[in-house]
Every structure is written in C-alpha cells, then in structure tokens.
Amino acid sequence: MKTYQVNENGYYGEFGGAYIPEILHRCVEELRNAYLKVMDSEDFKQEFAALLRDYVGRPSPLYLARRLSDKYGCKIYLKREDLNHTGAHKINNAIGQVLIARRMGKKRIIAETGAGQHGVATATVCALMDMECVVYMGKTDVERQHVNVERMKMLGARVEAVTSGNMTLKDATNEAIRDWCCHPADTYYVIGSTVGPHPYPDMVARLQSVISEEIKKQLTEQEGRDYPDYLMACVGGGSNAAGTIYHYLDDERVKIVLAEAGGKGIDTLMSAATIQLGRLGIIHGARTLVMQDEDGQITEPYSISAGLDYPGIGPMHANLARQHRATVLAINDDEAVRAAYELTRLEGIIPALESAHALGALEKMNFRPTDVVVLTVSGRGDKDIETYLANNPY
C-alpha cells in the first residue's frame, strides 16, 4: 500500500525538504529536534486539548446541509471550522505552535498572513499567553482585509505592511523570514500553512489533524461508519485541507477533492492554480510546485481570495496530486462567489472566500445518491463581505 506521509528527511515523495540560508539552519534544526518530543509529551497534549475545547470551542460541528444535499443529489456534511473562536481553522495551529515556542524558551512570535485569519489567530494566542507578536502582511492585503488588521492591533500585535512584490502573501512571508534571520535566538516563526522548510508542513498538518480526528468520531455517530466517500476542501498553502484529510490519507475508500484558486481562469495570466500551472521549484524553504516563468523567476499569483493567492503549494498536496491520490480542481473567482451566495441562500451560512472555492467544486462533481460528502468550511465570511457585495451575482 502506498503511503502519503512525510519521511524522516521531510519529504513527501519528491517534494519537501529544508532549503534554508545558513543563518536559519540552527533555528530549523532546533525545531525539528523538538517538535515531535513536545507534541508527544503528556503535558502538551493535555494543555492543547484543554485550550481547543474550552477556548476555541471544539469539537466544531459536522452539520448535515439538507438543502445543499438536495441540490447536489447526495449527503453533504459541512465541517464548521467557521464556528471556531476567531472564525477559522487557523487558531488550531496557532495555539499548538505558540505552546511549542513557549516550551522551547522563545519570547517573541512572528507570523505572516494573507487573508488575516492566521494573523488574527496568532495575535489572539499571543495575547492569551503574554507573548510579543509581530505580523507581516502585504500592503494589498492590509487594504482589502482592513477589519482583520484592526483586530490584530486591538489584540496587541504590531502589523508590518509589506510593500515589496505585489504586496501579498508571498511578500509577507519573505519579510517574516528576513526578520527571523535577524533575530534567530529569541524569535519563533509561526507559519500559518503546510508550507516552508521541514518540519513546518508536517507540524502544521499534525496540529490541524484534529479536524479529521473529529470527522471520524462525528461520522460514526451520524452515519454509523467513520469515513466519507468524499472529502473536499480548499487549498492555497493547504492547512485546512491537510487537517481535513490527515487521518484518511491511506484510506483508499475515501476520495479527496481539493479546490485551488483559478482566479480569472488558468488560461489567463491572473490565476493562483499552482497544481495546474506550477513546475518543480523551491519557495520559502521547500521543494514543491511553484508558479514561475521560463527563467525560474516566481510569477505573481492572482485570486479574489487573499488566503489563496500563493504561488506555491504545500509539499504534501503537491505529492498527493502527483500520485493521483487527490483530484485538484481550479475554481475561478466567479464560480467561488456564486457558490458562496448559494450556501448563504440555501443554508444561512456565509463562508469565507477561501472556503467558497471548495463549495464551487460541488457543481463539477458527479455524486451518487448514496455518497457521503464532507466539505470543510474553513472560515466565516465576515472579512469578505465587501468583496461579496462588489461581486454579487444576483
């Protein structure tokens, strides 16, 4: 049987690894040597579980969306990560990593953010645990996610607007890495997705795996079996998708469908569909699929969603696509917005623009009436209301 887990050197098949400047070697090696020991310790497990339960509000509901199910002719359950404290799945990872940082003796936390949800989650946990917090965010994203910026400031974080490149997630990550290079001893970098050098992709996937752990228990209660026929999630860097599929990776009964940002279309120059358009390359310390030109220069991605416009993808997901374990569909801006309005009108749930891409994949599927589908709503749509109103399809 194939396995899709990371190997001891941090590779998923040909993707992954740690390609880092020498100045960061000690930091990354220190984390690699510490993270599994910390995560396997009883005191970490107990503190992490207690905070997920009492602070985040987990388990998040697995909701049978009856009207959506009727429309697509199957049984669709929504994994409601939008109901977590701070409004997205990002808080699961932020709590876990700050707990690890504390146990490693770090005093200062830095993070990057695109849509702002990871930034808000990290700032929230730093407020809770009395840690200094600096969040790097592209100036373009600062402008389109203004409310999240103010939330981070209110929580006591310093938000640094990045003005290089096209001033979005890639550029915010670049600046966060520069900061880390300048303060390697006391600083811990909380990466928000399954990207970056090993051990980050594996660590983030493990911290988010609480999502699929809960799905197994909740399906057993509601369906009498612990697996669905389909798992669906949006993918940019890939943290909510990794959490959704983690405990099902080696279960071939479960089909995995991931939705990436098609932007204006994969045949245009305005897309963030890395699986469709990327080639093997290195970005932010990992060997993965990267959107690049003939000279290997990284090209600027585009998506209506601030959380999906990343020119790379987590190495786990690059490998799943390469091994044909996951089907990855490119969902365009207009399809995502239409799907968001559909969920809002049918179920009274306003999803984040990122999650709307997973919903947009439903119409591209051919389900049987007996199929059980679990789709992760990775976040709520409050932050995207202005974008929705400007692109109202009705």
Automatic annotation (TrEMBL):
Asked if Amino-acid biosynthesis is a keyword of the record, the answer is yes
Q: Which Gene3D superfamilies match?
A: 3.40.50.1100
What InterPro entries does the record tag this protein with? Trp_synth_b_CS, Trp_synth_beta, Trp_synth_beta/beta-like, TrpB-like_PALP, TrpB-like_PALP_sf
Q: Where is the Tryptophan synthase beta chain-like PALP domain positioned along the sequence?
A: 57-379
**Residue(s) carrying N6-(pyridoxal phosphate)lysine:** K90
Q: Copy the pathway line from the protein's UniProt record.
A: Amino-acid biosynthesis; L-tryptophan biosynthesis; L-tryptophan from chorismate: step 5/5
Query: A Pfam family for this UniProt protein?
Result: PALP
UniProt keywords, alphabetically: Amino-acid biosynthesis, Aromatic amino acid biosynthesis, Lyase, Pyridoxal phosphate, Tryptophan biosynthesis
Q: Supply the PROSITE patterns for this chain.
A: TRP_SYNTHASE_BETA
Role according to the record:
The beta subunit is responsible for the synthesis of L-tryptophan from indole and L-serine.
Q: Which PANTHER family match?
A: TRYPTOPHAN SYNTHASE, TRYPTOPHAN SYNTHASE-RELATED
Outline the subunit composition: Tetramer of two alpha and two beta chains.
Full protein name: Tryptophan synthase beta chain
Q: Which organism is it from?
A: Bacteroides caecicola
